[in-house]
Each structure stands twice: as C-alpha cells, then as structure tokens.
Write a structure and sequence with these properties.
Layout: H1 3-13, E1 36-38, E2 49-54, H2 64-78, E3 86-91, H3 94-106, E4 109-114, H4 120-128, E5 132-135, H5 146-159, E6 164-165, H6 172-190, E7 196-200, H7 205-217, E8 222-228, H8 261-265, E9 268-272, H9 274-288, H10 294-305, E10 316-321, H11 335-340, H12 346-352
Parallel strand pairs: 2-10, 3-4, 3-6, 4-5, 7-8, 7-10, 8-9
Antiparallel strand pairs: 1-2
Helix pairs in contact: 2-3, 2-6, 6-7, 9-10, 9-12
The chain binds pyridoxal-5'-phosphate.
Length: 354
C-alpha cells in the first residue's frame, strides 16, 4: 500500500473522513485549525522543543483571516450591512487579503489603504479578489507610513460617508477572534504543556488575543513579543527609523495594547533587525522546507537565540508564524530589494544558507 493510500485508510478507520461533512459551505469555514510542526533540525543543539504554528495554511495565507472574520462579523452585528456595503481598512497586506476574501464571499465592497511595503504580488491578489486599492506613498516624520496613511484615511472617509472603517489597531472584536480561535486551538494542540509562546507585535490583535486565552487557561506560559528594531508599537520602544518587515513595526502605539494589556499579558520583549529575521527565515526554508515570511523568521530567531536559553530538555516553546514567505519573493527575499533597502546581512544567507 502506498503511503497516501495507507494514510487515507487510517483516516477512514479513525472516522476522520466519515465524521466530517466532507466539504465546507464556503472558504470561510476553512479558516483556522492550522498545524503545529516541530523544528527539530533548526533546534538541534538546543535543550527545549522548538515548535512553530503555521498560520499560513489559512485560506488567505495568513493569521489575519481570523482577525478579518472577527471584524466583519462584528460589523454585521453593529451595522446594517448588505450586499454592496462599503468597508475601508488600512493594511500592510495580510489583513487586506483576508478581508477581500471574506468580502468576496459576502458581497461587500472593500477599499484598502496600503503602503509601498506591500509586495506587488499581494497587490495583484487584492485586485484579483475585487478590492479597490488606495496607495499611500509618502513617509511620515517618524520614517514610517502610518501617519500619512491616517491623513489619507480621513479624506477617504469624507469622500465615502457611507463606508464603514474597520480599524485593526483598535479592535476588541479581532482580539476576541484570536482569543477564542487561535488561543484555544494552541492549548488544545499543545496538551497541558506550553512553556513559552513567542509572537510578533504588530497591531496586537493576534498576540493580545492569544495571550488572554493563555493567561486564563495556562497562566505559567511565558509570553514573548517580538518587534523590529526602531518600531514604536510597544511602550518600551526606541527611536523611529525606517521599518522593513511586513506586519511588524508601526509609527504609533496601537490601542490594542492600551490600559494594562501590556503589563498583564507580556513577560518579555525582544527587538530584531530585519536582516536577522530574513536570514532565519531563509535558514528554516533550506533546512526544514518551510517557507515563512520575515515576521515568522523574527519569531523563530527570538525563540532560538533568546527564549530557548531559559529552558532545558522537555520544555516546549512555540513560535507563531504569521504568513508564507512566497508573499515576499519580490521584497524580503529579493537580493536587489535587500540592497536597495541597505539590508546587507542576509544577502549571503538568501543565496547560500546552510
Ligand atoms: C506578516 C505579519 N506578521 C505579523 C503581524 C502582526 O500581527 P498583529 O497585527 O496581530 O499584531 C502581521 C499583521 O498584519 C503580519 O501581517
């Protein structure tokens, strides 16, 4: 019997195929249930088990599908949405894809404000999904795009008074979606033991949602946040400088971290350079066959180089991998782009990592 045939017969014996309806009513039902994979070789020589949760197996290719669904379902409860209703969002790519996917299914019109960090293939995918794109090109005084993006948002909202703006920087609904889906799923998959959870700090919806579930149900799990050097996202941030990694680093502190969220849910914060993150992502691709974006590389870098040091054999550390690296072949994993951005470290790694 071939491996595939024996896998199929195991599924049947276990009732996995028979127990399911066999298909989903729409792509939205395929969101979630993403796998956790051990990064054995990546962790060789390190005591604890290093694991990664692959959020890129969501149908839109990233963990943002979950936040997008939570935000749209919230809007449906709050407003009288119907086919043709207009929704505005600001995105560095992944939320846009998740939102555009959901809007395509539900018949809403999506307008995406985006910045030049967006990979051209993501831009095309957004168009393919029917989203309307509004590009914000100029950097603000912090070196980022966030503030110019907010200015453009105001004019856009004035031009489209009936459109509903969904703000991922301040979204209890998106946090709640991650709390009850990703957070719950992680503990179900990890069984009773999760010693440290390593996540990217962007808008905060994923990390603050997951951290809430972990604090409630696994209070001993250490929560690590990872951000790009010079990001202003977190209260302990430094000076503003250009940022290169999608989904990481903002020019403001998102409201999702407001109040006591940061002190209650975060144990450690580590800043990484774009070059370190991209080199780690490249190394994992070459040694584990997993193609993740720079944000996932940043989380894995911190898991191995910082978090692992505090744990011995038998401990289990988990990094959340936000999205797939193929989304960045024209940016983070392109030698010319790296050179243009002045990111010299990983150029060799992209070509030659072992
Ligand atoms: C690739 C990537 N990594 C990390 C993040 C940060 O996640 P969050 O906004 O939930 O903090 C995002 C968010 O867009 C992302 O797209």
């Amino acid at each position: 019997m071939t491996a595939l045939a024996s896998l199929a017969s195991w599924y049947e014996r276990e009732g996995i195929i028979a127990g399911m309806a066999g298909f989903n009513a729409s792509v939205l039902e395929a969101i979630g249930n993403t796998p956790i994979v051990e990064l054995n070789r990546f962790g060789a020589g390190v005591g604890p088990s290093l694991l990664a949760k692959h959020e890129f197996t969501n149908p839109g290719g990233s963990m943002k599908d979950r936040a997008a669904l939570g935000m749209i379902e919230w809007a449906e409860r709050e407003y009288d949405l119907s086919a043709g209703s207009e929704i505005i969002i600001s995105t560095s790519g992944n939320l846009g894809i998740g939102m555009a996917m959901i809007c395509a299914v539900k018949g809403y019109r999506l307008i995406c404000l985006f910045v030049p960090k967006l990979n051209p293939s993501t831009e095309r995918s957004l168009e393919l999904l029917g989203a309307e794109l509004v590009k914000v090109g100029a950097r603000d005084h912090t070196g980022g795009f966030h503030l110019t993006r907010l200015e453009r948002l105001e004019t856009l909202r004035a031009e489209r008074p009936n459109a509903i703006y969904l703000d991922q920087y301040d979204s209890p609904a998106a946090i709640e979606a991650h709390r009850t889906s990703t957070g719950r799923e992680i503990l179900e998959q990890m069984g009773a033991q999760l010693d440290a959870m390593i996540m990217i700090a962007g808008t905060g919806v994923s990390s603050m949602g997951i951290a809430r579930w972990l604090r409630e149900h696994s209070p001993d799990t250490e929560i690590w946040l990872v951000d790009e050097v010079a990001s202003l996202t977190l209260p302990r941030s430094a000076r503003p400088e250009p940022l290169f990694l999608n989904g990481m680093g903002t020019s403001i502190q998102p409201n999702n971290y407001a109040g006591d969220a940061f002190s209650r849910f975060v144990d450690e914060v580590v800043y990484v350079k774009a070059g370190e993150a991209i080199a780690t992502a490249t190394h994992i691709a070459r040694t584990k066959g997993i193609v993740m974006g720079g944000a996932g590389g940043a989380a894995c870098h911190v898991m191995r180089e910082h978090a692992a040091a505090g744990y011995g054999l038998g401990a289990r550390l988990l990094a959340l991998i936000p999205d797939q690296g193929s989304r960045y072949t024209q940016t983070q994993f392109d030698l010319e782009w790296l050179e243009n951005m002045g990111i010299s470290g990983p150029a060799l790694a992209v070509r030659n990592s072992t």
